[in-house]
What does this fold into?
Amino acid sequence: MTAGKRSLTTAAVALVCAVTVLGAPGMAHASQAKPNPTPSPSTTDSTGSTDSTDSTDSTDSPGATTASTEELEAVRKKLDRLYHDAAVATDAYNAAEEKTKRQSAEIVELAREIVKGKERLEKLKDLMGAAARAQYRGGGLPPEVRLWLSENPQDFLDSADRVRQGQLASKGVLAEMERTQQDLELYAKDASTQWKKLEANRKARAEAKKEIKKQIAAAEELESQLEQEERERLAELEEQAARKAQTAWLGSGVLDEISGKASEEGRKAVKFATDQIGKPYEWGAEGPGTYDCSGLTSQAWSFAGKGIPRTSQEQWKRLDRVDVKDMRPGDLIIYNADASHVAMYIGDGAIVHSPRPGRTVTIAGAGSMPILGVVRPDA
It folds into this structure.
């Protein structure tokens, strides 16, 4: 292990002993003395294979130790938790972002309605004024006197009818003014409520952003403790865990029951998603250069002509659910008990997804992660 670098063994042992690794201040520094290397017995990793490598294997520095499989497995599980928590925070951020956009649009619309309402109120006031002036000009004498003075009784009756119509029109204008005033008060109240919600969602978005950065920074800090050889071994452990889960999923015979054909929209969505393979993961991103998991699926289905919710949790809540045995290419597989990850099924037991920070859009086994359920955007 190179000089000046912290020992992974120290960090891994600290993990096993339940010492917090999230904060860098709590981790051992290179200036601290390293424990005397002691041989470790062969261990069985999470995939069931036996590892005969002990902690006395050396790198380029005399007396340095490399982590055992058990220690690396502890690191792998810790990284999984950190990136999972980052995914949960990302979903919260995306949800707050969507609400902010929606509420901003509602506030703009309410502002337009208030402006139109005020303009209408001014016109109604002008009409009321005109009606009042007309009544004043035509209503100086009592009706019986005007009838007695009139040479033509029919003209008087016609005039009286017009007066009654004018009075009714004035009452109608007055009622419309009252309704418009009430609408304006309601719009103003709604706008105030939306502003409060908007501010609350902005705060929620800011908190989620902090949490995302915290979890990703903790994961990157933990990974930085690894030597190159240890990183390679950790990657192998991740692949082994994924293969083991996929093998178990396929071994259940589930693929024998899956025979659904993609719809036309589903084929378009699959093509869009697979065309993004190789592009980096970025939390909160919806393309075109980077994506998070739900950003990829929502944009793929938008390309196919079907708008769907932005986050994996909302996709799980609001889209129609189908049995795993009935899924077809283009359907979305929701992962983890909290619906914190989503991928698109592309057929033959495979998915395309944007996994996590530091990774790119890729194809993986549909059963390589714990499946919560399947939803269909174009049901």
